[in-house]
Write a structure and sequence with these properties.
- The complex is a heterodimer.
- By secondary structure, chain A is an all-alpha fold.
- Chain A contains three helices and no strands.
- Chain A is 75% helix and 0% strand.
- The radius of gyration of chain A is 45 Å and the shape is rod-shaped.
- By secondary structure, chain B is mostly helical.
- The chains are: A mainly alpha, B mainly alpha.
């Protein structure tokens, strides 16, 4: 019998099926030697591994929250500093407006020169030769 | 990994739950049983169907049909298993997967030899065999994971 007719005649098919059956018998015998896995114990173990997984997620979230809280504190400091700067500028603006008004009144009323000296808080902004 | 698989809180799950959890497995192995049964009936009761597998001698052909039917029934039994030992379901299913893989590979080889132009038929058998091999690996990994976590709980 030549190879072609052996294959076509079912030799290869028989060989594959025989190998499959042999492997099945061997694997089945190996599997039967293994310890059983009780369903209840497995359910508890899997639930516990789920809890462990959730704990890992919670820990990761906590780390992120701590980092976020740190960056939030920095942000709050910067906002607080910016608020201080704004308040200072508002104060300077109010002083400057009052001084300008005083100067304008001084000119309109024709009082003798020089006018009153520049207020102390505006001195840093005004040319020192014009302070008095 | 997205949880697209069907799951239920019902204990024990019903057969419909099993069916919804493994729809492709039940569909493919239902077809496998049907195909094996049909060819076997055609051989035994002498009625006409068209498949290259009929060119095989009677002995190997009957054996292939029986292995197809046996493999599919083992897989379904394994998937429907609700016994207290989880190992049993994996073991029965694995046996069915090995037998089914052998039967579909044998079918593909048979069609390839006798009718190489029927690409869809023999490639279908090979794809089924590849899928069955992947399922053997997946089942083995899942069984090992469950066994490991159960042992960890005992320690």
């Amino acid at each position: 019998m030549d190879v072609g007719s052996l294959i076509g005649g079912g030799g290869l098919v028989t060989l594959i099926l025989g190998t499959g059956a042999g492997v099945w018998r061997w694997v089945d015998r190996q599997d039967k030697k293994k310890d059983p896995i009780p369903k209840d114990a497995a359910a508890v173990a899997l639930a516990q591994s789920g809890v462990t997984l959730m704990q890992a997620v919670a820990k990761d979230l906590e780390t992120r929250l701590t980092a976020l809280s740190g960056s939030n504190q920095l942000l709050e400091q910067r906002v607080s500093a910016a608020e201080g700067t704004i308040a200072h500028h508002e104060h300077l603006f109010t002083s400057a407006m009052s001084y300008i008004e005083a100067l304008l009144r001084h000119i309109r009323e024709g009082r003798p020169w020089p006018p009153s000296p520049a207020p102390a808080d505006l001195r840093d902004l005004i040319d020192p030769t014009l302070h008095d | 990994m997205p949880l697209h698989g069907y799951s239920t809180d019902r204990r024990p799950p019903t057969n419909l739950d099993h069916l919804l959890a493994h729809p492709y497995a039940f569909a493919v192995h239902g077809f496998q049983m049907f195909a094996g049964g049909l060819v076997l009936s055609a051989v035994l009761f002498q009625f006409q169907i068209v498949t290259s597998a009929l060119k095989l001698p009677r002995g190997p052909l009957v054996a292939m049909c029986l292995v197809l039917i046996l493999g599919a029934s083992y897989i379904m039994r394994g998937l429907l298993d609700d016994s207290n030992d989880l190992r049993k379901g994996f073991r029965v299913e694995r046996g069915g997967l090995i037998l089914s893989g052998a039967a579909w590979t044998a079918f593909s080889v048979c069609v390839m030899v006798n009718n190489p132009g029927a690409v869809l038929q023999w490639s279908m058998g090979l794809f089924f065999s590849a899928g069955l091999a992947l399922r053997i690996i997946a089942g083995h990994r899942e069984e090992s994971r469950v066994a490991r976590e159960t042992n960890d709980l005992k320690l």
